[in-house]
Amino acid sequence: AQTVTQSQPEMSVQEAETVTLSCTYDTSESDYYLFWYKQPPSRQMILVIRQEAYKQQNATENRFSVNFQKAAKSFSLKISDSQLGDAAMYFCAYRILYNNNDMRFGAGTRLTVKP
Amino acid sequence: DADVTQTPRNRITKTGKRIMLECSQTKGHDRMYWYRQDPGLGLRLIYYSFDVKDINKGEISDGYSVSRQAQAKFSLSLESAIPNQTALYFCATSGRLASSASNTGELFFGEGSRLTVL
């Protein structure tokens, strides 16, 4: 079964600084998606960024970028110029393309942004 | 209005009571999912459905049942609630993967239903 590991339960960053959240996953599949979701106190699950496994180029969305290392099964999220609104729980997730299309989530990393 | 709507948003109930959480969507997606979120465990799949006639168990289906009343509606029931079912529950939808170049593969979530079983 696919598993997703986020080894940092909590992280803290100073406003305007850069922070990297770690994620590793385990799979025998070659085609899949990877995601980072943000969950603010409102508890809404908000997609931050996505990556298709067949793409070698790392995805970027404004201040958010990923470091995707397929061979190492690693998918870290970098947040640049951190803002107070970035404070939230961040979930790394993996989804296979076939069969049940189940999305598997890590346990989450709680990010605190200090002013 | 939200594309994926869950009701109720919050519910407190007692052990042994029957509870139904409802989900409706306007995204036109075939696939609907119920997840449960617990601190330190992330989100775990309870049940999923690919269409009205297709219901499948997820990782943690014991103690739960579901009904897909229509393409747009997918409800989760706890027949006899117990305290360890206290959690945040999410409904999610998606289009079919690998069948559309425009499909992003993401899940679209409702706002969550927080259930407390006393």
Short description:
The complex is a heterodimer of chains A (115) and B (118). Chain A is an all-beta fold. Chain A has no helices and twelve strands.
Q: Tally the beta strands of chain B.
A: 11
* Strand content bin of chain B: over 45%
Overall 3D shape of chain A: globular
Gyration radius over CA of chain B:
14 Å
Structural class estimated from helices and strands of chain A: mainly beta
Q: Total number of helical segments of chain A? A: 0
Give the percentage of residues in beta strands of chain A. over 45%
Sheet with the most strands, sense and barrel status of chain A: 6 strands, mixed
Weakly predicted, low-confidence segments of chain B: none
Any idea what the radius of gyration of chain A is? 14 Å
- Note the run of SSEs of chain A as H and E: EEEEEEEEEEEE
Instruction: Report the largest inter-chain contact.
Output: A-B, 24 and 25 residues
Mean pLDDT figure of chain B: 91
What does this structure look like?
The complex is a heterodimer of chains A (115) and B (118). Chain A has no helices and twelve strands. Chain A is an all-beta fold. In chain A, strands 2, 5, 6, 10, 11 and 12 form a six-stranded mixed β-sheet that branches. A four-stranded antiparallel β-sheet of chain A has the order 3-9-8-7, with no helix packed on it. Chain A has a two-stranded antiparallel sheet with strand order 1-4. Chain A is globular and about 45 Å long. The N and C termini of chain A lie far apart (41 Å). In chain B, strands 2, 4, 5, 6, 9, 10 and 11 form a seven-stranded mixed β-sheet that branches. In chain B, strands 1-3-8-7 form a four-stranded antiparallel β-sheet, with no helix packed on it. Chain B is built from no helices and eleven strands. The model of chain B has no long low-confidence stretch (mean pLDDT 91). In chain B, a hairpin with a 3-residue loop joins strand 4 (31-38) and strand 5 (42-51). Chain B is mainly β and 118 residues long. At the A-B interface, strand 6 of A face strand 5 and strand 9 of B.
